Amino acid sequence: MSSKLVGVGVGPGDPELVTVKGVNALREADVVVVPVMDSGERGRAEATVLHYVPEEKVVRVVFALNERSDRARREAAWDAAGERVAELLRRHASVAFATIGDPNVYSTFTYLAQTIAELVPGTVVSTVPGITAMQDLAARSGAVLTEGTEPLTLVPVTAGAAVLKDALAGPGTVVAYKFGRQANEVAEALRETGRLADAVWGSALGLPEESVRPAAELDETPLPYLSTLIAPARREGGRGGKL
Asked: DSSP letter string over the chain?
């Protein structure tokens, strides 16, 4: 029989935000892979997973999670990680891969699944959706993501602050991921587009070091890489004005 690889979204950090289906998938798998940047550190996905499965069932696999400048190094790291997971699939009937947020939203699982399709043909790949950082930040801050006919734009600021500025100039709510290293540029883009007053940012959501603050307080203080920003749509006309 073909082995199964399932990508499980474990949310942004709060273990209570893992879905029942996600917990079941983690517990039913023979092993649970968690991505780490080095073999010694405990990442957010692993910390969440350990609330639901024993440590001996968890396998750390090193990924070049933040490598963007050296494509050859990144590709080599992905290949090595893929080989490690392929080895597990050859020995086990089912392997779960835990990823923060959702496995289909800017997730390392996407690249892993492509690699496994080549290394272990016939592997059945599936995903279990997870709660995203923008949903959690919206809940914790009271920001409404969409109303009526409003669009929602999600931008990774790793693509550059100019991309975010273009999105802010348009209609609807704009969410920015991974903006911590460019916080000053993001604040300037919000000011220039008149979107600063209602915007909010957050980091380490659901964790002891959680921070949820108005974007107007952004300054030159370094922020965590995985910080999330919500700039709500401009809303006029009262209740139901965008219907």
From this structure: ---EEEEEE-BSS-GGGS-HHHHHHHHHSSEEEEEESSTT---HHHHHHTTTS-GGGEEEEE--TT--S-HHHHHHHHHHHHHHHHHHHHH-SEEEEEESB-TTSS-HHHHHHHHHHHHSTT-EEEEE----HHHHHHHHHT-----TT--EEEEEGGG-HHHHHHHHTSSSEEEEES-GGGHHHHHHHHHHTT-TTT-EEEESTTSTT-EEEEGGG--SS---TT-EEEEPPP--SSTTTT-
